Every structure is written in C-alpha cells, then in structure tokens.
Amino acid sequence: MKHLTLQYKIDSSSAMELLGNDLAKALPNGGIVYLQGDLGAGKTTFVRGFLRALGYEQTVKSPTYTLVEPYEFNQVVVYHFDLYRLSSSDELEGIGIRDYFHANAICLVEWPQKGAPLLPEPDLTLVIQIIENKRLVEIKANNNRGNDALQTLGRSITTDNQ
C-alpha cells in the first residue's frame, strides 16, 4: 500500500494551531507523530492546537527540560516529548521511554532524531520548513494507521492553507 503525504502552507500561528486541532480529530485513538523542524518552526504551536482539540485549556509549553509532559484525557493520554537537549539516546532509558508508547497513548515527539534508535517508528512524520515568514508543513504517513489519519485529515481540514 502506498503511504499518503499531505502538504499545507501555513501563514500564521493560528493556522498552525488549526492544523494541530484537525490532526487530533483525525488521530483519536493513539499513535506516534514525529515533529521535525528548526527552532521556532511551530512544533509546539502545532501541539497546542492538538491538545486544545482534546479539551486542554491551560498553557502548553515545550517540555525542553523535563523531556516529556503528559496530558490525560478520558479515552487517551497524550505525551509531548521534546528531545532537543538530549545528549544521548541512552538518557531515554532513564525516563522509561518504552512505557510511554502504548495502545492508549498519543506520543508527539519533537526532535525525534535525537532519540534514535530507541524510539518506535512513527505513524506520521510532520516536517515543518520555514520559508520567509510562512511554514510549509508536510505530513507523511508511515503505515496504515497514518494513512487512515491522513485520509480523515484530508477530508476534514479546516485551515484555508491547503
């Protein structure tokens, strides 16, 4: 089966949050999403929109120093990882990394390359490129769960930036 890829041109932080919101609705029952992009690309803004779609109303900050921030909801728990400050993937063993990746979890991982080879393969890989004052976001499915999410996302996108 061919894996889907969607691209979006994002021109504001609110549009990035809307994309996160829409993906949360397309991936409701667990999954792994890698978030790649330079500092300031909008990864945490995307996560904020994702969490808002699930009902989280408090401040969303990047877990740069704690490595992971859990958000518990009725049906699912979301783990937001930021591995930017990781000096070695071995540090992930110390936080029990394998315990976070389970059937009722959505794992959103910023800077996943720093966690290789200990991280499982993602369902989706989201790559954000900064082009002038805009963002080009490419979301790639890596398996059937990712394909299903992108098919749903493609049908239900609420941003005007497709």
UniProtKB/TrEMBL annotation:
InterPro entries: P-loop_NTPase, T6A_TsaE
Gene3D superfamilies for the chain: P-loop containing nucleotide triphosphate hydrolases
Biological process, per Gene Ontology: tRNA threonylcarbamoyladenosine modification
Record-linked NCBIfam families: T6A_YjeE
GO CC annotation terms, alphabetical: cytoplasm
Gene Ontology molecular function: any one: ATP binding
Native organism: Candidatus Berkiella aquae
Superkingdom of this protein's organism: Bacteria
Subcellular location: Cytoplasm
Keyword match Magnesium: yes
Main location, first listed in the record: cytoplasm
Family that this chain belongs to: Belongs to the TsaE family.
Name by which UniProt lists this protein: tRNA threonylcarbamoyladenosine biosynthesis protein TsaE
Recorded name of the encoding gene: tsaE
Protein keywords: ATP-binding, Cytoplasm, Magnesium, Metal-binding, Nucleotide-binding, tRNA processing
